[in-house]
Amino acid sequence: MQITAIEPRKKGLSALYIDGEFAMKLDTEVLLAHRFDVGREIDDESLHECVLDSDRKRCKDKAMWLISYRDHSRKELFDKLKKDYPEDVAEAAVARMEELGLVNDANYARRLTEDLISLKHLGERGIRQKLYEKGIDRDLIDEILEETEVDEAEQIRAVIEKKYARNLDDEKVRRRAVSALQRLGFGYSSIKSVLNEYTDIEEY
């Protein structure tokens, strides 16, 4: 097989032509590192190695790009990368991010828990579910919730004050509030106890 053309493309890629026909797009830096020049004869093994190296580099670059926008759990990052790259390549990229300290599930889960409490006003069950959805290990979730104090009554009050306090005399609003609070991970008895602070109506 002979390389007959290499043409630059967007996003650091180059189109590789073999024996006069378009073959694939590969990372330009990797092509240069492999010394793929026009006119060079290559075999299947050397082409395969170049493709693998291109995938590895592009996958790591994408991982860095994703992390630059916001924190990711290990599972989140892996799931996003495997959409575009082989699973072993995605796994290697995630492992490299962990080695660099850019992915750390324990730190990520603790920061997320703080946000879920202070910004989203979730209850313990709601926090547990969100962490599980992000791929956090159950044992780590247990550890974090054991060391985190969640004042569920205060959390419920915060939600009520923000959205429902002025209209709790309306039965539809009360029921909507109960449903919303249950979705946030609060038990019915806890919700009812706090709602009783705002209204004398017992039925919700």
Q: What percentage of amino acids are in beta strands?
A: 5-15%
The computed structural class is mainly alpha
**How many helical elements?**
10
Structural shape: elongated
Say which CATH homologous superfamily of the largest domain is assigned: Winged helix-like DNA-binding domain superfamily/Winged helix DNA-binding domain
**Low-pLDDT stretches:** none
Distance between the termini: 76 Å
Largest sheet: 3 strands, antiparallel
CATH topology of the largest domain: Arc Repressor Mutant, subunit A
Order of helices and strands: EEEHHHHHHHHHH
Task: Just give the CATH class of the largest domain.
Answer: Mainly Alpha
Proportion of helical residues: 55-70%
The beta-strand count equals 3
The total tally of domains equals 3
The CATH architecture name of the largest domain reads: Orthogonal Bundle
- Widest sheet: strand order? 1-2-3
Mean pLDDT reading:
90
Radius of gyration: 26 Å
Task: Using brief descriptors, characterize the structure shown.
204 residues; mainly alpha; Arc Repressor Mutant, subunit A; 3 domains
Descriptive notes:
It is a single chain. The protein is mainly alpha-helical and 204 residues long. The chain folds into three domains: 3-99, Arc Repressor Mutant, subunit A, CATH 1.10.10; 105-147, no CATH class; 152-195. It has ten helices and three strands; from the N terminus they run E-E-E-H-H-H-H-H-H-H-H-H-H. The chain has helices at 28-33, 44-69, 74-81, 87-99, 105-118, 124-133, 138-147, 152-163, 171-183, 188-195, and strands at 3-8, 13-18, 21-27. The protein has a three-stranded antiparallel beta sheet with strand order 1-2-3. A hairpin with a 2-residue loop joins strand 2 (13-18) and strand 3. Helix 6 (124-133) runs antiparallel to helix 7. The radius of gyration is 26 Å and the shape is elongated.
